[in-house]
Design goal:
alpha+beta; elongated
């Protein structure tokens, strides 16, 4: 009976560990490394700079100690945090590194405030 209890506890811990690993370990990079991760999903933490909104889409500059990058939040991505952004906010942006008009950008699918 003890072995059964231990097995169940170990199995539960394993499932929780797998959930944690797949949902919380992200490809965290500095902005200066974005060009090495073109086409990949990354997470970058930084300060919000200039913000521009048009047709429900939000565009802003994200700055960290290594540089800056444009972040695009399309209306269809339904990220409510995009509407709350203010210049100077510290955020973590997760999205795909892309290129538009020869400039790197992040197409956001998640924004978290700090």
């Amino acid at each position: 009976m003890n072995i059964l209890k231990i097995s169940i506890i170990v199995a539960i811990i394993g499932v929780i560990s797998i959930y944690f690993i797949t949902n919380y370990l992200e490809n965290k990079i500095d902005i200066s490394q974005a060009n090495k991760h073109f086409g990949e999903k990354v997470t970058i933490r930084g300060n919000v700079g200039q913000i521009f909104r048009k047709n429900g889409n939000t565009f802003f500059r994200l700055y960290d100690f290594s540089g800056d990058i444009k972040v695009v939040v399309f209306k269809k991505s339904k990220i409510p945090e995009a509407e709350q952004l203010k210049q100077g906010d510290v955020v973590s942006v997760t999205g795909k590194v892309s290129k538009y008009k020869n400039e790197l950008e992040i197409i956001a699918d998640k924004i978290m405030f700090f």
